Amino acid sequence: MKNRLGRNEGGYCGERIDIQAVLSEIDELARQLDWQPQKICSDDHLIINAYVRQGSSSSHCFYISSGIHGDEPAGPLAVLEMFRQKLWPIDLGLWVVPCLNPVGCALGTRNNGQGIDLNRHYRQPLARETISHIHWLQSCPRFDCSVLLHEDWEANGYYLYELNGVDGTSLSHQIIEAVGQLCPIHADGPVDDWQSCDGVIRPSIDPIQRPEWPEALFLLEQKTRRNYTLEAPSDFDLPLRVASHISALRTVLLNSPS
Ligand SMILES: [Zn+2]
């Protein structure tokens, strides 16, 4: 169904998922497919895993994360479907973190168990999740591109943020064109502090203007020169949001320039 459901009031009020079941299935499928599990955090009450498939020496390297906000279930479900349907293209190096905020995802809250929005503290990390994540990222190679899966409960269609430190190599319009076959695209206008045009937002990448770094800005500063933060509209059906994320993610993976 391609229509707004009109159920989100003051925040996300849609479907919840059993995140532990989703993560267990991803773990099982990734191991079956010979991906390497890596522990980002393995405290008693906080387990965050990554899954790595090294490509050949000439492979492009991609980083993909989801579940940093616990009230955005389409991201972890899209990662699960990528494994279930074996949709990861061959010959790519892939570093995938299916859920950066497992406690928030279990609670269905945007923030983590301590009420911290993890996607605001990559400049001065406070939370165990962020500190562990940065530590793990520093052990990873540089990536050709990163893709972060999010949702927006207020949006009237799909959109994305592009952070691009390299001129002339944008895939944004290709992504929006692919997703537009499935899902409405967010109308032009302001989103938070930024202006959306044809479903694309290009925020400032000047760290001085961004005192609270999201994950994307940390990645741009330290690990990659290209980032797409994908925002599915969470007032639409969950299967549509998952299919839209898969379409967008595969567009990036199959078309990224070197
Ligand atoms: Zn989000």
Fold and architecture overview:
By secondary structure, the protein is α/β, with parallel strands linked by helices. The protein has a single domain, classed as Zn peptidases (Aminopeptidase), CATH 3.40.630.10. 30% of the residues lie in helices and 23% in strands. It has 7 helices and 10 strands. It has helices at 19-32, 74-84, 102-107, 128-138, 172-180, 215-222, 238-255; strands at residues 36-43, 46-53, 60-66, 92-97, 145-152, 159-164, 189-191, 194-196, 200-201, 226-233. The strands form 2 sheets. Strands 1-2-4-3-5-10-6-9 form an 8-stranded mixed beta sheet, with helices on both faces. Strand 3, helix 2 (74-84) and strand 4 (92-97) form a beta-alpha-beta unit. Helix 1 (19-32) runs parallel beside helix 2 (74-84), helix 2 (74-84) packs across helix 7 and helix 5 (172-180) packs antiparallel against helix 7. The radius of gyration is 17 Å and the shape is globular. The chain binds zinc ion (ZN). Zinc ion binds next to loops.
Taking the alpha carbons of the first and last residues, their distance comes to 37 Å
The arrangement of helices and strands along the chain is: HEEEHEHHEEHEEEHEH
Q: Averaged pLDDT, please?
A: 93
CATH superfamily: Zn peptidases
Total discrete domains: 1
CATH class: Alpha Beta
Profile the largest sheet: 8 strands, mixed
Helical residues, percent: 25-40%
Secondary structure category: alpha/beta
Bound molecules: zinc ion
- Tell how many strands the DSSP assignment holds: 10
Taken from the alpha-carbon principal axes, the silhouette is: globular
| Sequence of strands across the biggest β-sheet | 1-2-4-3-5-10-6-9
Q: How large is the count of helical segments? A: 7
